[in-house]
Amino acid sequence: MALLRNSVRLLTFKRSDISIINYYPFHEAVRTISSSTRHTSLLTNKNVNEYTQKYHSGHLMHFEDGKDVRVVDMRSDVLTKPNKAMRKAMAEAEVGDDVFREDPTILKIETKVAEMFGMESALFVPSGTMGNLISIMAHCCNRGEEIILGDQSHLFLFEQGGYAQVAGVHPMPVVNRKDGTFSIDEMKRKIRPIDDPHQPITRVISLEDTHNACGGRVLPLAFIEEVSAVAKKHDLVLHMDGARLMNACYALGCPPVDITRHCDSVSMCLSKV
């Protein structure tokens, strides 16, 4: 959903016996720990896929001491599957041709989400990557413009650098702190002078909430407000990669608009709600 905005784990359990497989982002090693048996093994990048395919959700892991644990796969928050009630709702949903803006279900969800986030409008798109790309391209009308973003942000590390490939937008990274924020002073220093034709033109500042690579941290509202104030002072646009923004809303106990009121665009993934 585009609006004009962890280490994850594989948890296994049986009764009081808990086993956790931490699956760190960026293809690092995976460590398996069983608290009940003190069984520990290390999985490398080479066999992690084979392991997780063998022990996917619902399957039992058997240890030498005779204890079994059932696997709940939490490597990602998009591995869940729709239940019968959800499939029934999909099958019975009223549909139409969205090209002609005649799909009432899509129109309803776009209107609802735009209102929730305090935006003028929303657009339902196939992926969060597309939502981010569309948002950035809506702000950067010329090739060679620049986006300031965290060096651990999903936009910078992944998404195939689509803003550069497709839109010709140049990234200017700032160092992310462990809590997902970054230095406001460093961000200010990275804003390009407007009178030097040799440099790209700073156009967008991008935030991520919750912050995936920083352990799912929630950005403080005061930090977002401070970044927004700098953006407005320099006539810049503030984009929020809010793929998991609803998690931040839950953690802060606030509606989405309280987080996004200072942002010019937001992407949000329904698959992660």
Spans of at least 5 consecutive residues with low confidence? 5-46
Shape: globular
Report the major sheet: 7 strands, mixed
Total beta strands: 13
Strand and helix order: EEEEEHEEHHEHEHHEHEHEHHE
Count of DSSP-assigned helices: 10
- Oligomer classification: single chain
Write the layout of secondary structure elements.
Elements: E1 2-3, E2 8-14, E3 17-23, E4 30-34, E5 39-43, H1 45-54, E6 60-62, E7 68-72, H2 84-92, H3 104-117, E8 122-123, H4 128-139, E9 145-150, H5 154-157, H6 162-165, E10 170-174, H7 184-190, E11 201-208, H8 221-233, E12 237-241, H9 245-252, H10 256-260, E13 265-267
Parallel strand pairs: 9-10, 9-11, 11-12, 12-13
Antiparallel strand pairs: 1-8, 1-13, 2-3, 2-7, 3-4, 4-5, 6-7
Mind explaining what this structure looks like?
This protein is an alpha/beta fold and 273 residues long. Helices cover 32% and strands 23% of the residues. The protein has ten helices and 13 strands. The protein has a seven-stranded mixed β-sheet. Strands 5-4-3-2-7-6 form a six-stranded antiparallel β-sheet. The chain starts with a strand and ends in a 6-residue tail after the last strand.
